[in-house]
Amino acid sequence: MDEVNALMRRYDGVVPGASLLVVSEGAPVLHRTWGLADLENRVAATPRTNYRLASVTKQFTAAAILLLLEDRKLSLEDHVRTWLPSLPPVLDSVTIEHLLTHASGIVDYEDVIPKGTTAQLHDADVLHLLESQDSTYFKPGSRYQYSNSGYALLALIVERVSGKSFAKFLGERIFTPLGMNNTVAYEDGISTVVNRAFGYTMKDGSWTRKDQSVTSAVLGDGGIYSSIDDLAKWDAALNDSRLLSDESRRLAFSPQTATDKPDVKYGFGWRVTGETLWHSGETSGFRNVIVRYPSRRLTVVILTNRDDPAPYETALDVAKIFIERR
């Protein structure tokens, strides 16, 4: 489609690329790619290319919590210190629901990483950093502030409750049942990413690999790698009860918390804006977005292996093309 090609032109050629998925009426109607997944080895992006999802991961972390809720192994009202008792008493009133909706007030772990840290942090390291914090940004439950700390703690709660590693739980309860066979919460030295896209940044007029940072190994807030092929299966599962019950999906998709933007609310791992459910993901070398229009049965996913630009507006423009053609 010429209109879509025009929107995606910046990703075409010998540059960091992009994968685009459009699902309409339950079926993929467009899955196209542009550019390269690996510049150094001239590997083209394909629909099977796996990108680091960054904060698009959060909807999977939330789904893991909802599965344990359905198993009756936890409650949304559980206090976080019930499962992670090493956290400081200042967090006594923080609940699992507060973590899901970014209403905990917990300090951002990225702000308290010791200077000079070069080794990658893991979710357990986030817990250790927060153990020494004796204050919160605000009274838990009183307002919203986006929190990567909260989602790292949710991953640890999944581990404590299930008795399995977060990555294994996701694989057994979400990825394998849905046939997302190449999606993984990546752990260096433990798992691999097939068909991997590497991240890039523009530096001094040329693209430079910028694939990892000190926080890239934290899984709960952003550590999943996936492709548009696999995300088509994830999107399909969000339309019925094959994975999550009707009630769990209602909770995830409902506007639970007002955010710092008047037109955006937050559910469980999803932003709610007008008729859309969406989430973006931004990390070292990657920018991604998923935008769903449930009432129109339309979804747009854009995955990119570069740190600029954010693809949210492009996804809206792609959606507009398909809406206007109906």
How would you describe what is shown here?
By secondary structure, this protein is an alpha+beta fold. It has a single domain (2-324), classed as Beta-lactamase, CATH 3.40.710. It is built from ten helices and 15 strands. The chain has helices at 2-7, 58-70, 80-83, 96-100, 123-131, 148-162, 166-178, 228-237, 246-253, 312-324, and strands at 18-24, 27-34, 36-38, 43-44, 51-52, 184-185, 200-203, 206-209, 224-226, 257-258, 265-266, 271-273, 276-283, 286-293, 298-304. An eight-stranded antiparallel sheet has the order 2-1-15-14-13-12-11-10, sandwiched between helices. Strands 5-9-6 form a three-stranded antiparallel sheet. It is globular.
List the helices and strands and how they pair.
Layout: H1 2-7, E1 18-24, E2 27-34, E3 36-38, E4 43-44, E5 51-52, H2 58-70, H3 80-83, H4 96-100, H5 123-131, H6 148-162, H7 166-178, E6 184-185, E7 200-203, E8 206-209, E9 224-226, H8 228-237, H9 246-253, E10 257-258, E11 265-266, E12 271-273, E13 276-283, E14 286-293, E15 298-304, H10 312-324
Antiparallel strand pairs: 1-2, 1-15, 3-4, 5-9, 6-9, 7-8, 10-11, 11-12, 12-13, 13-14, 14-15
Helix pairs in contact: 2-6, 2-7, 5-6
Q: What distinguishing features does this structure have?
A:
10 helices, Beta-lactamase, alpha+beta, eight-stranded antiparallel beta sheet, 326 residues
Alpha-carbon distance between the termini? 15 Å
Order of helical and strand elements: HEEEEEHHHHHHEEEEHHEEEEEEH
What is the fold named in CATH at topology level? Beta-lactamase
Q: What fraction of the residues are assigned to beta strands by DSSP? A: 15-25%
**CATH architecture call:** 3-Layer(aba) Sandwich
- β-strand number: 15
